[in-house]
Every structure is written in structure tokens, then in C-alpha cells.
Input
Amino acid sequence: MKTAVVGTGYVGLVTGSCLSDVGMDVTCVDVDAEKIANLEKGVLPIYEPGLDAIVERNTSSRRLKFTTKLADAVQGAEAAFIAVGTPPGEDGSADLRYVLAVAKEIGELMTDYLVVITKSTVPVGTAEKVKKEVAAALAARGVDIPFDVASNPEFLKEGAAIEDFMKPDRIVCGVESDRAREVMARLYKPFTLNGHPVYFMDVPSAEMTKYAANAMLATKISFMNDIANLCEQLGADVNEVRKGIGSDPRIGNRFIYPGIGYGGSCFPKDVKALVRTGRESGYDLRILQSVEDVNESQKEVLATKIKQHFNGDLAGKRFAMWGLSFKPETDDMREAPALVIAEQLLAAGATVCAYDPVSIAECKHMIGDKIDYAEDAYAALDGADALLLVTEWREFRVPDWDRVKAKLSQHVVFDGRNIYSGSELRENGFTYYGIGVK
Output
């Protein structure tokens, strides 16, 4: 089965690579010639554990190819995924210009029946817009070539995307014809053979499922952060509360870990877009607006604790920051709490020295040399007035506290992810601050 994937960002590259790894003939397309040249040499534009090996294996076997020419990818393909970016506009709405531009070009180039699949996260109604673009391009050519538009939202977790794609907890396919359903069923047969479920539904429902899923997870995070902040006021320990409620199967223990807010490419953008979609439809999603508001304020919690500890005077203070990416196992810095924390500390006259196992290059790309960067975790501590744990990478879980104490000028730890024991650190002579804990 020949498949085209347009866009070699996070979603497109993972999708194309994994489909080729189950034996399909996949051509990935991107307008960025430098990115394509690097991919052909095995240089990936993103960090995702295990992805480099899959790309190398399938490019060597010629099942996976990269090109800047959409015509080469569409020719002979039965399915074409649109996996380009949908960045948020200033009003929070998803920017569909790249999705619709690809749809138009597909209509200009296709020669046989094709299922055009929206893989990008898009608002309800986007498939209809894609259909109109393809149809208009075909009409301009004076040809009548049958096609279908399907919705196939991704549910990939950064840092675990390969496992999620190869062993999905569900595959959602929005289709509007039996022919499109048959193509999608063949496309995902390698996965259903292992018992992974495919849910066929109408296209608008599939589009909504993606937004609703991310919005629910974001809601759990913001809810728990709100509870954590209240725990601090009342003298309760949110870690104990989390255990107590997480044991209830109706609630579950996932996404109820308090911290310094969510970030990344999905939750912030999708919550904003869904809120915007509601407003455009005449319905205010009041819970989701609060979810977004809580998350934005939560990113400031750590900086607030720091200012309170130092009596509002951060001028000349130096802080060691462990972790930059919005979560472990990725170099994604989009909407990362680290950026907000660093900005607030710098504005107060402090300096920051950060270390992250994979995200330093991306951070430099985003904010340059506004902060200092260390070559390892302990080097970041030299002369610092406090340690800030921002991203819970595994290598930060059990540090040598004697070594940490020797390097810090003041023995203060601000734990933004609650991975350390406050009582243990206090016994070792540290001042400890967590999120919603004693």
C-alpha cells in the first residue's frame, strides 16, 4: 500500500516512519529542502526516543522516502495524510492556511481515487473545507476524479510516540463513505491484527474527539494544580490527596500529578482552539476557559515562591535550573513553564544557569543567550543561590545531595514537580519548597 505524508514535523514524521515499519511504501513531503536533505542523511528535526532507528531502518530498505515534490508522493498513493502545522492565531483559533494549501495542491496533482486524511489537529468542520479545496482544484483542471476526505486524529505522547503509534489504545477514523472506510481499514490492519481497536465514526465526531481528549487531560492537570495550591493554604499534602482520589477507578491516577503547569504543542493550543470554537458557535466553554487561566497562573507559582523566600529581592541572585523542555523525553520547548520562570527571574534582576539533557539547543533557538547553559547538571549549580527542578528527567531523580550542597551558595531547593522528599532534604540541611506539599 502506497501512502503519502505531507509534513515532516512531529506527527508527520512519526506517522510516516511507523507506517513504513509495518511494510508500507511511504513518501514524506516537506517544503523545507534543508529538512528533507537532513532526513535523507538520517538527521532528524526532532528528538523522540527510538525514532532515529526506525527512520534509518526504513530509509535503508527504501520503504521510507523523503521529497520536496508532492507530485512524487501522490502519484500512485491510495491515501495522503495532511500532517502540517496548525499554529494558534492571536485569537486562539487554529491557523488552517497550511492544511488548506496542501489540500489545494493535492487537488492539482492527483490522478486517481485518493483518501485525503487530516492528521493535523484541526477544528470541527475542517474536513469540509479540505473537501472544497480539493474539489475546486479538480474543477479548475476540468477533471472529475473521485476522492474522499477522512479524519484520523493522532493521540501521540511526546517521549512515547513510537509505542503509542505501534500499540495504540484506540485508532479513530472519521469517514463518510464505504470506500474510504475500506482504505482506512487496510491502512490500519497491521495494528488491528494485534487487537488494537479502530473506531469508525462520522468526520465531525472524529475531529471533536481529538480536542475533547486533550481538553479532558488538560482539565485534570489544572484541577489538580488548583487543589495543590489550596492544600498549601490549608496545611494538607497534595501527594496524599492524590493517592486518596487516584485509587478511585472513576478518577484514576493518571494526569493528577500537580506541578508548574502543562506546555508543549498540544494541550495549550487545543484548549485555546476549542474555547474559540465554542465562542464561534455561540457557546462559552466556561470550564475550559478556567483550565487555561489556571494553567497560565500555575507557570508563575515557582517564581512566586522564589520571590517570597528571598523577600522580593532577586537582584544579583543566581539560580540553577534543571530541565527546560515541557516534559521529559522530548526537546519540545513550546509553551514550556521553564520559559515563563526564566523570564520572571531575569526581569527581577537574577541570572539563570540551566541544564537539560536534550533541549539546550532548542532553548537557545528560542531565547538565545538570555540565560546561561551548563554542560551537566552539577555544573549548573556552581555559585547558585538555589536549585530549581523544572523538568523531571530521570537523571535528576536521585542526585548526590552532598555534592549539590557543596556547590550551592545557599541550600535551597524549589521542586516544581514534587519528585523529592521535603522531609529528607530538610534533614540534610536544605530549605525545601514543593507544590502543595508540606
Q: What stands out?
A: The chain has three domains: 2-201, 211-297, 299-433. The longest strand covers residues 2-6. The chain has 18 helices and 14 strands.
